Amino acid sequence: MKHLLTVVIALVAGFGGAALFSFTGLGHSQTREYLVANPDILPEMAEAYQANQSAERMASISGPVSTPFEGAVLGNPNGSKTLVKFTDYACGYCRASVADVDRLIAADPELRVVVREWPVFQGSDVPARMALAAAKQGKYEQFYHAMFETGQPTAENIAAAAQAAGLDMEAAREFGASDEATAELARNAGFANQLGFTGTPSWIYGDRPFEGAIGYEALAQIIEDGEG
User: Fold this and answer.
1) Is the pTM of this model over 0.85?
2) Of 83, 85, 50, which is closest to residue 226 (Cα–Cα)?
């Protein structure tokens, strides 16, 4: 309830407040009494406010955030539907979501999954940089799956995943240390911060950002809703 009141206060203070006052015919001094008498509208107001905030945050970055780092795409790179995934190789929930995304891709030939490398755990920038290097070599999908399959991103596991993906290791290490790779990771962190993401995996479909390993059914439903 405290969270809902915070959201309602923000809503009343913003543009939504004018609409509420107009709808209820109440002034500022009467609004609190109205809300107390009608608590059932608080969740609906909070949801509407949060959706509005998300839409505002998405408006300025919707194009750039769905434009992949070259090669960092799963599924159909020219697909008409785009799911964006923010991921970290040290994140167990990200690992759990791999099968869900693979299943979505298998079920829909029009699905393009743009993967944004967002290393939030200590040391996970190392496999993230290797993943970008793999994208440069046209072997992103191979590294992405191999890295998650090997487990935690230790130096040994990163090397094993890179070998399994068939990377040119010298070129991969050189690119991983490049300004281009650093800029891409910073760009992804900026997107995540602007969208208010708190961890991985985080997602975007259409103009809807959301978080968590929510499972195949929920992801499929969001995609279906977005097409409706």
Assistant:
1) no
2) 83
